[in-house]
Design goal:
Elements (H helix, E strand, L loop, with lengths): L3 H26 L7 E3 L9 E6 L2 E9 L2 E3 L2 E5 L2 E9 L4 E5 L4 E5 L4 E8 L3 E6 L12 E7 L5
Parallel strand pairs: 3-6, 5-11
Antiparallel strand pairs: 1-9, 2-3, 3-4, 6-9, 7-8, 10-11
The structure holds dinuclear copper ion.
C-alpha cells in the first residue's frame, strides 16, 4: 500500500518527466531545432575535413583540441545545409554557434552530430563555451557563408 506522500511524489515526478519529453519534442518539431545525436565512434572523425556532398550540402568533421578548432575557417555558399560531426583530441570542449542555437560538447572518444542550415550570408562564430584551460577564451573558428550573387 502506497503512502499518500509517496503517491504524490510519483505523480509529480511523472508530470515533470512528461514536461521534459514534451519540451524536447517541441524543440525538434515546432522550433525546428536539430537535436545533437551521439554516433558510434570512428577514427575518421579525428581528421578535420569539409566534404561537399552535393550543391548546398556539406559535411564538416570538426576537431577540437587545446586551443583551437579545425578546420578554423569553413567556407560554404549561402543556402547550404551542413552536417557537423564533432569530436575532441584531448579534453572536453564546447561548440557553440550562437546565432544558430547550436550547443554541443566535443568529447574525446565520442562523436556528436548536428545539422544546420545557413540561409543568410555572413560570418558565424564557433566558440568554445566549456572551460578547457588557459587558452579557452581564444578558442574559436568561423563558418563563412558567402553570397554568390556578390561575386
Ligand atoms: Cu576549448 Cu574552452
Amino acid at each position: 500500500m502506497l503512502d499518500k506522500f509517496e503517491r504524490k511524489i510519483i505523480t509529480i515526478t511523472g508530470i515533470i518527466t512528461m514536461l521534459f519529453i514534451f519540451s524536447i519534442l517541441y524543440a525538434k518539431t515546432s522550433r525546428r531545432i536539430d537535436l545533437p545525436e551521439c554516433l558510434p565512434y570512428n577514427k575518421i572523425y579525428e581528421e578535420p575535413k569539409v566534404i561537399k556532398l552535393d550543391t548546398n550540402l556539406y559535411q564538416v568533421h570538426a576537431v577540437a583540441q587545446m586551443w583551437q578548432f579545425q578546420p578554423a575557417q569553413i567556407y560554404i555558399p549561402v543556402g547550404s545545409t551542413v552536417d557537423f560531426y564533432l569530436t575532441s583530441k584531448d579534453v572536453v570542449h564546447g561548440f557553440n554557434i550562437f546565432e544558430k542555437n547550436v550547443n554541443m560538447m566535443a568529447v574525446y572518444g565520442g562523436v556528436n552530430k548536428t545539422t544546420v542550415k545557413f540561409d543568410e550570408p555572413g560570418v558565424y562564430k564557433i566558440t568554445c563555451h566549456e572551460y578547457c584551460g588557459i587558452g579557452h577564451h581564444n578558442m574559436q573558428a568561423e563558418v563563412i557563408v558567402n553570397n554568390p550573387s556578390a561575386k
